[in-house]
Write a structure and sequence with these properties.
4-stranded antiparallel sheet, 22 strands, Neuraminidase, 14% helix, mainly beta, 41% strand, globular
Length: 316
């Protein structure tokens, strides 16, 4: 009985604390380099996991939501911080971490959100971005070698969220709970709609902010991390949607990446705070549907525990 009370207390505390923790969304940055190392961010540090499973801090004390790798294996991120209510400003710098472990700054300290260095990159390290202009979103490509920025497509869209670029510059992006593709010829295509289901009552994000990380496998199938559903979904090249992984109770996916041997690494955020990279062996990546009701039952189980805890407290 004592153990039950402890579980209830922890659950209640976590649920009360979670809305404050989740006010700032978790990062989606997780990448895999050619030697097989995995890098991911928890908004405090960037961690490295070697192919042998050894974990260490690669870049300490940096607040970066995204990461990027260039063809030489250099890792890029930023450090973003708030200067305080007196100034009410956001500042940042951009860093580069080499395969040899050398850390340098690519851009020194400057005002944040200037769109002068992004982390959505193709194989040539061209930089892609999307900005609202009136009732339309304009997508742009910046060639860092010149540098020259050009518009590559525009469309009337409601609310573009995360972007991801394939090696050839094909863009994938989320809008509400749908996934779009912008091809290199400038054509848009809605690949899948209504991806988020069900929505957990404990998620800090609404259905239209459900999609976080977007990534590809070697066959060009697209994967999305659905934070509100606790699911990773796959959209194959024929447009068929399936669920390939479900996060354990208390965790929710925010990103993902396949390593060189086909294992899936799911970046997960805990409801009570915390980030981890969970390895799913290639043979364990589900090829069919994970019952959508499982997430609802999990949320229902937590809600039942909360109600029981409140009832017991009233009896005391």
């Amino acid at each position: 009985m004592k153990h039950l009370f402890e579980v209830l207390a922890i659950t209640l505390f976590s649920l009360l604390l979670f809305p404050f923790i989740a006010e700032a969304h978790p990062g989606v940055g997780i990448v895999a380099d050619r030697p097989g190392n995995i890098y991911y961010t928890d908004l405090k540090n960037v961690y490295k996991i070697t192919p042998d499973g050894e974990k260490s801090i690669a870049v300490a004390n940096v607040h970066t939501h995204e990461l990027a790798l260039d063809s030489a294996g250099n890792l890029y991120g930023e450090h973003l911080w708030y200067t305080g209510e007196a100034d009410n400003r956001w500042r940042r710098y951009v860093w580069k971490y080499t395969p040899e472990g050398k850390l340098t700054r690519v851009l020194g300290e400057h005002a944040a959100f200037q769109n002068n260095f992004g982390f959505v990159r193709d194989a040539a390290f061209n930089d892609y971005s999307a900005r609202r202009e009136g009732d339309r979103f304009v997508f742009r490509k910046t060639d860092p070698a010149r540098p020259v920025t050009s518009a590559i497509g525009e469309r009337q869209l409601n609310d573009v969220q995360w972007l991801m670029s394939d090696s050839d510059g094909t863009l994938y992006f989320s809008e509400n709970d749908g996934l779009w593709r912008l091809s290199t010829d400038g054509t848009f295509k809605l690949l899948a709609a209504n991806l988020a289901e069900p929505v957990s009552p404990f998620s800090a994000f609404e259905k239209n902010r459900s999609i976080f990380g977007i990534w590809l496998d070697s066959l060009k199938n697209v994967y999305v991390a659905l934070h509100t559903s606790g699911l990773v979904k796959k959209i194959d090249t024929g447009g068929i949607v399936s669920t390939v992984n479900k996060s354990p109770l208390g965790w929710s996916p925010v990103g993902g990446r396949f390593d060189r041997t086909g294992n899936l690494w799911v970046l997960e955020s805990a409801f009570a705070g915390g980030i981890r990279a969970r390895k799913v062996e290639a043979k364990e990546v589900c090829s069919g549907q994970v019952p959508a009701s499982e997430a609802a039952w999990g949320a229902g189980a937590i809600l039942l525990l909360v109600l029981l805890g409140l009832g017991i407290r009233r009896l005391w």
